[in-house]
Amino acid sequence: MIVLDGVEVDAKMGEFHTFAASPTQFAIESGAIASDHIIEQPDTLEVSFVLSNLDDDGASYGVKAAVALEALRGKLKARQLYEVVTRHRIYPSMAVTGIKAEHVGPFAGAIKGRISFVEVNRVLLERVKVANAPRKSSAASTKDKGRVEAKEPEPADKKNTKGSVLSQLFSKGKTAVKARVGL
User: Fold this and answer.
1) What CATH number is given to the structural domain containing 31?
2) What one-character DSSP code corresponds to residue 84?
3) 22 CB burial (10 A radius; 0-12, 13-18, 19+)
């Protein structure tokens, strides 16, 4: 007996775990970190099961499979996250993404099926309290807040410059170069 969140099936036939990643389809620049261009896909799980149609007394064919199939369909329609526990791995937040069911003869009403899950990644958000710090006002007074003054731009060819930009950088010595490198 296997229970899928309240739905009882007769046997679990298999588990199909899928872990995948998708690399970019575009060229990566030389020197770039390759892992930044490989996107991990959500884990998927598919469980195959068998569900007979025998009533609890085991003597007659009833509606057990039809009721269980409708209950599984309800899990898909509920759009909820489930913790799925398998023999090999525990998945904390899985969404039901598909149910496949097939009537298998010669047993009247018996179902062989698969239920598919995809992991939904969740992020924990936390609130952080920031201590109240004194606020500084950037305007000279409250009446000047929001006031912006503009001045006429000076044409580049009329500026008082001494030589090219490169000659200005290197003529001031190493301290000027250090100051610009730190920016």
Assistant:
1) 2.40.30
2) E
3) exposed
